[in-house]
Write a structure and sequence with these properties.
Elements (H helix, E strand, L loop, with lengths): L1 H15 L1 H67 L6 H13 L2 H26 L5 H39 L2 H7 L4 H39 L4 H11 L2 H27 L4 H33 L6
């Protein structure tokens, strides 16, 4: 009888208090579920922690590389500026670079300026006519070219033609160990190679920009007179009354800064070229892309600086 009671008592307890069995079952399920997740959670958390650490490290390394690249680029340009006033001065090399950069880029700059002014007139005159203000066409074209389009488009054209050539030339010299040979012979590569190109760009790019502005205004005048039968004196008077000395100053300061950036980036990419001919191609691509991006970004900050410091409306 005692044995029967012992065997039946658990069932009695379960039948008398069914909630105890239910709660125990629920707790057991929760424990099993927790144990399940507890068994897999260390692997998941370790993978998640590794992913976060890798992402943070990659971001930090990328940011650090960008900052170091900017630092080295400006240090290179600063050394080139300092070495300009030291002897020996390579005047023949400076004149050669001015001829290559300035005279060599003249045709593409004139074409760009002419058709930019023409297409601006072609697009803006119908809109101005709808408001009855077509008499200010010359002022609109001139201000657009002198303040923004002339400096930026000239810098981009020079970047594509001259920046790529500088990077490819210096990159080829670097992979063929010509720069190391110059150092071994006691010649400073920065003074011999970088400084003349920097001076040539600082002189040539503002002059090319002024020519692009003039030819662009001429192209706009031709389109306005020939296609829209606008009076020539009205267009020219609008140009004369719309441009001020502050606009001209701002339009000259911008290409000076752009030339500095183009030369610094292109020379830096060329001098650090590695990997043979493949590396020369990669350095040339990086030089053009980085120079174009820096021209566009710096244009915004230059426009704001000219507006605040020099009181140039932009």
């Amino acid at each position: 009888m005692d044995k029967v009671e012992l065997s039946i008592s658990p069932f009695k307890c379960a039948s008398i208090n069914p909630s105890i069995n239910t709660s125990n079952t629920r707790k057991q399920r929760e424990r099993s579920g927790n144990n399940k997740y507890r068994l897999t959670s260390p692997a998941v958390s370790a993978h998640h922690a590794f992913s976060i650490h890798f992402a943070r490290t990659y971001r930090m390394n990328t940011l650090l590389q960008v900052l170091l690249e900017i630092q080295e680029t400006f240090l290179l340009a600063t050394r080139a500026l300092v070495r300009i006033i030291r002897r020996p001065a390579y005047f023949a090399e400076i004149l050669t670079q001015i001829d290559r950069i300035g005279v060599g880029s003249l045709s593409i700059i004139l074409l760009t300026g002419f058709f930019t002014g023409g297409v601006l007139t072609l697009q803006t005159v119908p809109t101005l006519k709808s408001f009855g203000t077509q008499s200010v066409t010359g002022q609109l074209i001139a201000l657009s070219l002198v303040r923004e389009l002339g400096p930026v488009l000239s810098a981009l054209m020079v970047t594509a033609r001259v920046g790529s050539a500088i990077s490819a030339e210096l990159g080829a010299m670097s992979v063929s160990q010509q720069i190391d040979a110059m150092r071994a012979l006691g010649t400073d590569p920065i003074r011999k190679l970088v400084a003349p190109r920097l001076i040539a760009l600082l002189i040539s790019l503002p002059l090319l920009t002024v020519l692009a502005d003039i030819i662009g205004i001429m192209g706009g005048w031709i389109v306005a007179v020939s296609l829209f039968q606008q009076d020539s004196s009205t267009f020219l008077n609008s140009v004369r009354n719309g441009i001020t000395g502050d606009d001209v100053i701002g339009g000259v300061i911008k290409p000076i800064v752009f030339g500095f950036l183009i030369c610094a980036i292109s020379c830096r990419q060329g001098l650090t070229t590695e990997g043979g001919t493949v590396g020369v191609g990669l350095s040339t691509t990086r030089a053009v892309v980085l120079s174009a991006i820096m021209v566009i970004i710096s244009d915004f900050f230059l426009a704001k600086a000219l507006q605040v410091v020099l009181n140039v409306p932009t």
